[in-house]
Amino acid sequence: MRQADELAALIGRLVTSDGVHETAIPRLALIRACQPTEPVHAVHEPALCIIVQGRKQVMLGERIYLYDRTRYLVVSVDLPVVGQVIEASAEVPYLCLRLDIDPVQLGALMLESKTDSNKQSEGGHTDAGPCLAVNPAAPELLDAVLRLVRLLETPRDISVLAPLAEREILYRLMNGEQAARLRQIATAESKLQQVNRAIGWIRRNYDKAFSIEALASEASMSPSALHQHFKAVTAMSPLQYQKQLRLQEARRLILGAALDAASAGFRVGYESPSQFSREYRRLFGAPPLRDVARLRSARAVDMLGA
Q1: HTH araC/xylS-type domain spans which residues (predicted)?
Q2: Segment 35-91, tens digit of pLDDT
Q3: CA distance linking residue 303 with residue 306, whole number of Å
Q4: CA distances in angstroms from 258 to 50, 83, 232, 266, 293, listed in the order given
Q5: 67: nearest Cα among 145, 132, 15, 159
């Protein structure tokens, strides 16, 4: 794992404080944590995440994904997940990078490399499936990632060389174990893209009630097909997905905008304060005020997306 060692040394030089650090390279962020973190609820957007030191777990629905320097994480649609750094110390901090996946670049690369967009897997299977996965980190992928991160030490080269390194990273991913899922991101009428249209609608209208029939129409699918594929992709139903978004936004409003629980619940679409408090407690493990007080005292660092 020579590449991981070099990446760890490089990221250690570039970021010396905990948190998520955006970089001069578009879509690339570097992350550091010197201790394990609290579980963080948030929406993970499409991205490649590579840990070079430490360990993390991400929970989607009831399933837990563990990854470290030997395995990378790929997310191919917006997913409400719970992320937690579980191995980190001041002496050996958690170090990670996140590269957001640009679907436009992915589509252009797929066309240029003459990838058969209809061949979603070796068996030609086109159904949407889980859109969060952990896979072994191949040396070829790490080589390309290392070249990209090295450019942060020679900023004058970023504009010319960063797009080349990013293209190679996407190419390696497209020819790896997540090839079928990534190709579906760039294929307009794939089941994944249809589900993604439904996801986008819910994210824009998370505070509004909706019917599964109206959402299915938005996705150009039948209600039964939408429900089936939505759950396969996100590990939850459309209504469960909306509930996660509502509660995460309410938590952000209480924590960051100093709203009281009733006002935050109403802002995100709840009409009943008791229902809001009950569902908030079920998701976060404590009533709103106690949960927010715990977060403030712990000073939890948002390590999601890495």
Answers
A1: 196-294
A2: 999 888 989 999 999 999 999 999 998 899 999 999 999 998 899 999 999 999 999
A3: 6
A4: 34, 24, 36, 14, 12
A5: 132
Q: Which amino acid is at 176?
A: G
Cα dihedral sign for 200, 205, 210, 213? negative
Q: Which helix (H) or strand (E) holds 185?
A: helix 179-185
The Cα–Cα gap between 133 and 80 comes to 14
Q: Say how far apart CA 219 and CA 13 lie, in whole Å.
A: 46
Is the pTM value of this prediction over 0.90?
no
Count Cα neighbours of 206 within 13 Å in the Cβ-side half-sphere. 21
Residue 185 has which token pair? 């991101």
Count of alpha carbons within 13 angstroms of residue 154, beta-carbon side: 8
Q: How many helices (H) and strands (E) does the chain have?
A: 12, 10
Tens digits of per-residue pLDDT, 89-114?
Answer: 999 999 999 999 988 888 788 778 76
Element (H, E) at 135: strand 132-136
Residue 210 makes CB contacts below 8 A (sequence gap 6+) with 201, 202, 238, 242
Q: How many other C-beta atoms can be found within 10 angstroms of the C-beta atom of residue 255?
A: 17
**Residue 269 pLDDT > 70:** yes
CA 13 to chain centre: 25
